[in-house]
Amino acid sequence: MVTRVPAEAHGDERGALLSFVEAQRGSIRRSLLGLTEGQAASRPSAGELSLSGLLKHVAETELNWLRLAQQRPNEKVRTEETWGDGFRLVGDETVPQMLEFWAKVAAETEEFIHSVESMNDTFPLPEAPWFPKGQRCSMRWMLLHLIEEIARHAGHADILRESLDGRTALELVAEEAGYPSQS
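The chain above was modelled as a monomer; its predicted structure follows.
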């Protein structure tokens, strides 16, 4: 769960982009360190977001983009009726299960990106009001979009975590690295 992304080997665009995706994944995972299921599900701000809900959302979002790029059906596709369930744990879902699910998605994303012939390879964008009809995007664009999407939610996670117990992202980085608490 790094915060500093090492420089890529010369010309290793895939490795560099995947490293930035992983750094953002780490920010989300780290925001959950030491929390109970109840704390992770709580909504300490005026909005509907919780840390466990953000975790589920980013994991399912990455899966969705992976399936689009692979041009395969998404086994976790959301409908209008189930959209809200993508932002909260339901039934017997737990944070550890979501972390494990996301780890599998992340590994599959990395394997897929290393298997494509070129970062210029494209796939069709989904039909949505925010995408132009009939457009395609590259593997490069997809990874940059994942960095953007996960980073946006990592910022949300920082605010939610600090609202829960006052712990900042840097304190959590230090804890994860085994440094003594500064409090």
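Strands lie at 122-124, 136-138.
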